[in-house]
Amino acid sequence: MVTQIHFTTQCKSIAAELYAPAGTGISETGLVVVTYGSDGLTDNLSGPWATMIRDYAESLANSGLVAMIPDYFAVTGTQPGPSIFDVIAEHRDKWQSAISDAIDHARTTSLVSTSRIGLLGFSLGGHLCLRLRDKADVLVEYFAPVLDGIGTPGNLTHAQIHHGTADSLPGTGFSNAEAIKTTLKREGTSTELFAYAGASHGFIGDDQANTDARKLSKDRTLEFFRSHL
Q: Which among 32, 102, 114, 179 could bridge 118 via Cys, Cβ 3.0 to 4.6 Å?
């Protein structure tokens, strides 16, 4: 079941999509906050991002978890697309705060167990999730960039990283995944890095490498949250 909700961040009311499993008991369910990348919650020529992200949320709900997709670009009125890269430095803190407030809002609902919080982020969304890891118990990120750093240490018990070895988008090469793994392991987080040979950024394409990466990474992600959240 999906419903649109609103939460307040930085004096603005922001929309989010909330996916809940059927028959959820009060305060029994883990929460996964799902964050989109630079293309936002859209399907466009560079990929079916909205379809993909909503499918993850629906699959998480079918697994017995609550999933929430906050429209964090709305806090700055930023349109998704390539121009995002020009304003990351200016808006990142506001986006991060919006996602943080989304987590806090979800904690107040009767559906969510406050001690079972997960983050799932794609590309820029993965970077923002990493910078908010002190608010979560577990985390999964896809092809996230390090940029100028992934923020202060957190207390994650488990993390999972998915990245294609052929990622050629500027600033998001595979070396980012290795650096993130090193940082998380140094913090004491049990961290898995899955390298997808020949897969590109976003795992977009009909070739075998990207097709396999899309399916295998999703299966691994759902099993991760079922096991650890």
A: 32
